[in-house]
Amino acid sequence: MRASLLQLSVDSSESADERRHRAASLVRGRAGDDLVVLPELWTAGAWAYDRWGHDAEGVDGPTAEVMSAAARRAGAWLHAGSIVERDEDGTRYNTALLFDREGELRGSYRKIHRYGFDTGEATMMGGGDDIVTVPTDFGVIGLAICYDLRFPELFRGLLDAGAELIVVPAAWPAARLSHWQLLTRTRALEEQVFLLACCAVGTHGGMEQGGHSMVVDPWGTVLGAAGTAQETVTVDLDMAEVTRIRTDLPVLRDRVLAIAAPEHR
Asked: Where exactly are the transmembrane stretches of this chain (predicted)?
């Protein structure tokens, strides 16, 4: 199967609507791909907290409408990154959207781990509760977002739910680029999955985003990577490699799930 990461430039020079139509044009141009991926919170800007209230929307809002049409036009599964979702109660979430080849919304995931400690996303958004996987015609996709990469428990949960490929949209800070590069390879290697990590570039809210989107195979090998400009990374994946690597190096069967914490004396 063929997958493309659209490393989108996100800054303060465009409105959310202008960026939607620019992104949709890029998606439509990926006809022939099986899966297309966009970054985290690319409509409002992951660090532009002042825009979240204005640009918040429902999972059936303007971003979903435009991305659904783009997926249908390209004939590809589309992971449309994530949006600032506002639910019926007014709570905001960082929510990923996955559309199938016909433009139907097949999965959504509310980010479980919210970044910011006592500021930003941690205080301005609600957290999700559910581990989300979606079956496709090329394998089972697991959904995670950016800061989730620092929490291996989620990725083990996705593995146990059947994930063979995990998609991680992000707006990772350039200042911690080395962490991004290490964690993406680690999560792919430890779960023996393909990991598609799509990060934005540009600066907004005073934060430079790191770019360096990458596709990593179940052996931990980087199959394709971007730099720091807007660009597209396209890689052909052999999904049979997941089974082959898990068979040749069957570390997952050696997991010990019931390890008790030591008693303090």
From this structure: none
